[in-house]
Amino acid sequence: MPDTKPGAGRSDGRVKFCLTDATGAPSLASHLRGLVASSTVEEGDYSTLPDVALVLVDAVRGFTSQARSAVAMAWTAGVPHVILAVAVHPSDDASVIEETISAFEDFAEKTEFASAVAVSLSLIARNGRDVLTDSNSKLTAHLTRIASATLQDAAEPSAAAPPSEQFAAHIGCVSQQELIPGREYRLRISGQETPASVNAIKYRLDPQTLRRVPARTLAQGEIGACTIATDVPLVLGGGDSGEDDSRFTLSDLYTDEVVAAGSVDFALRRGVNVHWHPFTVTKELRAAAKGQTPCIVWFTGLSGAGKSTVANLVEGWLALQGRHTYLLDGDNVRHGLNKDLGFTAADRVENIRRVGEVARLFLDAGTIVLCSFISPFRAEREAVRSLVDPGEFIEVYVTAPLDVCKRRDPKGLYAKSLAGHLPNFTGIDSPYEEPEEPDLVIDTTTAPAAELAQRVVALLQARGIVAKPDEHSGSPGSI
């Protein structure tokens, strides 16, 4: 469970709150913002690491499932304090109010908030409309205490743990974008920033009961436990950023949208004890022995676009030139390395992650490795690019109109998908994200495959990967 600290430790003593309105009356949320607005209290969201989760409910509707989910999300994300603001009508029975507060307190006991307080706010008629008032000032008084504690906590740095590349965490998805293991995100924690990925979702927590439920991904509003791996070792604890050094966010690498917020449980020992062992024979020596410049040529596009056909012709030409190559193909790797994976978004991410690591090993061996994969998600293609040095990843977008791919349908996959027998098929009920800046685009409806393969070869020659052939070397189409 998240080990939440007494405060977020902001050096300026300002309290940030995030507000969830579970009343269904937006005007009441605006009234509540007016009540708490001050020089020391300001609204934020999970990207700002809020100190307080403010959950507004109606006494009659009670502690609803939406309110429970909001409290559970805040706890998972390491928010130190939660306040249940209960809007009370003059006609509300006292027992109804007590039942709402009691349900909240029972739920909060299962968590580890530094403070969990329920405050009743009166609804009074003003100009013919109901407005909220904090007649006894309990809400503002509690926020003042939190601000004071936050300022004090900032002066008490925590002890730093040894740097680690992996840690266990509780995390919640706050975006419409699904949190997928294996996908690379931008991790921000304690003033540090680095690419990171979720290794696995160990389980999801039912936000109503906090019971464990099996899960492979997390959708918006869902919370769970996971392990996270970072590109570089991080110091977890002892941060000097003025923020709680157990709390973090994961953002989309390209849009910077916050996808998830969480809190560190503990550093994993394997993240401390595993080290890279240097060897005498390097990639450069292996490449020199082969007399070539290694690279990854990544063919991406819809099924039926012609990726494997073109890649096969390119490899054939390279083989005639005496180049050391290997062709990794989507179907072929699913017969062995990735035979345990299906075609859900999470499985597709893991499929490309594994292939990317294998391609990197071939590259390290000094080989020109050609990869032919639909690889529908831009993030995963870019993750493979990030594994290697600049210029070593060449992205070739093999394109053809979807209708043409359907007519070709060399493996009968479109027919199966359209008949409802093959779910999560790219181009039908699963998206394909086109490359934004591919190194080469080839449209297989505009020229024969051999001519298109020659364009790939020409690119490799222009990049200095292979030498320009003499007149007797032939072309990809002559194999």
Total beta strand runs: 18
Instruction: Please tell me what the overall shape is.
Output: elongated
CA radius of gyration is 28 Å
Major sheet strand order = 2-1-3-4-5-6
What is the straight-line distance between the termini?
61 Å
Mean pLDDT, all residues: 87
Secondary structure tally, helices: 13
Relative strand content? 25-35%
Sheet having the most strands = 6 strands, mixed
**Class by SSE composition:** alpha/beta
Descriptive report:
This protein is an alpha/beta fold and 479 residues long. 29% of the residues lie in helices and 27% in strands. The protein contains 13 helices and 18 strands. The protein has helices at residues 26-36, 65-76, 94-108, 138-153, 269-273, 283-290, 307-320, 330-333, 345-364, 378-386, 402-408, 413-418, 449-462, and strands at residues 15-21, 41-43, 52-58, 81-88, 115-126, 129-133, 164-173, 184-189, 192-205, 212-213, 223-234, 247-252, 258-267, 295-300, 325-329, 368-372, 393-399, 440-443. The strands form three sheets. Strands 2-1-3-4-5-6 form a six-stranded mixed sheet, sandwiched between helices. Strands 7-11-9-8-12-13 form a six-stranded antiparallel beta barrel. Strand 1 (15-21), helix 1 and strand 2 (41-43) form a beta-alpha-beta unit. Helix 7 packs across helix 13 (449-462) and helix 9 runs parallel beside helix 10. The N and C termini lie far apart (61 Å).
